[in-house]
Design brief:
single chain, alpha+beta, seven-stranded antiparallel sheet, about 45% helix, disordered N terminus
């Protein structure tokens, strides 16, 4: 009886110990899952924090750049006259060559596309998609996905602990042979001045396709000029082949309109390019000259037509001279008649009339 009781007690203890072990095992498994979740969540949180810091650093860098390198004031939204045009800048032309060379960075010197590409990859400036209609849209939804961009254009890169790394020789700056630029010619009534200001810039990649049909143009992305202006003011370009000491900043190069390019589009309600309504090359060239002349004529005639003003002034001066001559002639005639009247009156008074009463002397 005692033996049976002992066995029964031993069986109860074993059951209690087994239940405790199961509870301990369950708690260990639960703690393991929690640790795994924490380990998985920590890199994501760290990545979000790093992205937040990068964005904050980029914003602070932009603010510091704007303070350290002040640029031209933004265009007012309430100007009374404005004309927006799009030009194509070919880098093979001498006037635009400062934007192309050096093709690969040499020390601190680099061409415009290399500079923009590095600023874009570091999230310092925003790059926005080139849409099918060719218009620029500067919204967050239109921002370029950097990873998709370098994959689409087959730009070689390496992944490291610090992220994506691209060697300078792999940046396709040699293939970017032109730019699209949007500029606004406007009259600022607050300062009574006329300006031509760059608004947006788009690098264009020239690349031979797989079929060997010659080079095709691939507009890459739009950047807002006001965003890149503080950084362009720090980058110096050479502006003369004869005097290599002649340099200026890229921002001065654009704000002084040193570039040359033909108009391919204007801002219009139909959204058409010049090529869409100019069937021939001669018609296209004629339309480009007409638009250029319209802008030049407006700038020239803001304060009136000077030639017409000069002619009107000369006519007015001639009329004044004629009036003065006629007045002088009338004065001469008047003075002559007065002298005549005076002379006739004096002669009349000299020859007095005969006496009405005569006195005779009588002889005695």
């Amino acid at each position: 009886m005692m033996k049976l009781s002992f066995l029964h007690n031993h069986h109860g203890c074993s059951k209690a110990v087994g239940g405790s072990l199961l509870r301990i095992f369950a708690m260990a498994v639960l703690m393991l899952f929690c640790c795994v979740d924490i380990l998985n969540a920590q890199p994501a949180a760290r990545r979000r924090e790093q992205q937040r810091r990068n964005a904050s650093d980029a914003q602070n860098l932009t603010t510091r750049a704007r303070i350290s390198f002040p640029v031209a004031a933004k265009m007012s939204e309430d100007v009374v006259w404005r004309r927006d045009v799009y030009r194509e800048i070919l880098l093979e032309e001498d006037a635009n060559a400062p934007l192309y060379y050096p093709v690969e960075p040499a020390g601190s010197q680099m061409n415009l596309f290399t500079y923009l590409f590095k600023l874009m990859m570091r999230d310092i400036i925003g790059a926005y998609e080139y849409r099918l209609d060719g218009n620029e849209v500067f919204t967050d939804s239109a921002k370029v996905n950097k990873k998709a961009f370098i994959d689409n254009y087959h730009i070689y890169y390496e992944r490291t602990n610090r992220g994506i790394t691209i060697d300078d020789s792999d940046i396709p700056s040699r293939e970017v042979k032109s730019y699209y630029i949007k500029e606004s010619a406007y009259y600022d009534q607050s300062s009574s001045t006329f300006h031509v200001k760059p608004v947006a810039l788009c690098p264009v990649l020239w690349r031979t396709d797989d079929f060997g049909d010659g080079e095709q143009k691939y507009p890459l992305f739009w950047v807002e000029y006001d965003d890149i202006a503080p950084y362009l003011s720090k980058q110096v370009v050479m502006t003369s082949n004869l005097n290599n000491a002649a340099t200026m900043s890229m921002d001065d190069y654009f704000t002084q309109n040193m570039y040359k390019g033909k108009i391919y589009k204007t801002a219009n309600m139909l959204g058409r390019t010049l090529a869409q309504y100019c069937p021939t090359d001669s018609a296209l060239a004629k339309e480009q000259r007409r638009i250029e002349n319209e802008i030049a004529a407006f700038e020239k005639n803001i304060w009136g037509d000077q030639a017409r003003k000069d002619s009107l002034d000369s006519i007015a001066k001639t009329e004044v001279k004629d009036k003065k001559a006629k007045k002088a002639k009338r004065n001469r005639r008047a003075s002559t008649s007065v002298r005549k009247r005076r002379s006739s009156s004096s002669s009349s008074s000299g020859s007095s009339p005969a006496a009405r009463v005569t006195v005779r002397r009588q002889r005695h």
